[in-house]
Amino acid sequence: MKPLFLLTLGMVLSAALHAEEVRRTPLILSQGGTPEEPAVFDGEGLIIDLGIDITAQDWIQAGDVWTSRGPLPGHPPREDTQRAGLFIDEVPIIIVRDRAAEQQAEEAKPIVYLAPKALHPGQMGWTEDGSLYFRWPAEKKPGEARIIQPSPGLTSGVVIACSHITVRNVTAMHAANDGFNIHGHRVGIRLENVRALSNGDEGISAHETVQMDVADSEIAWNGSSAGGVADVNDSVTSYTNCELHHNRNAALFFDGKSHRVTDCLIHHQERDIVIRGKDVVVETSGNVWRKEE
Question: What pTM did the predictor assign?
Answer without folding.
Answer: 0.90
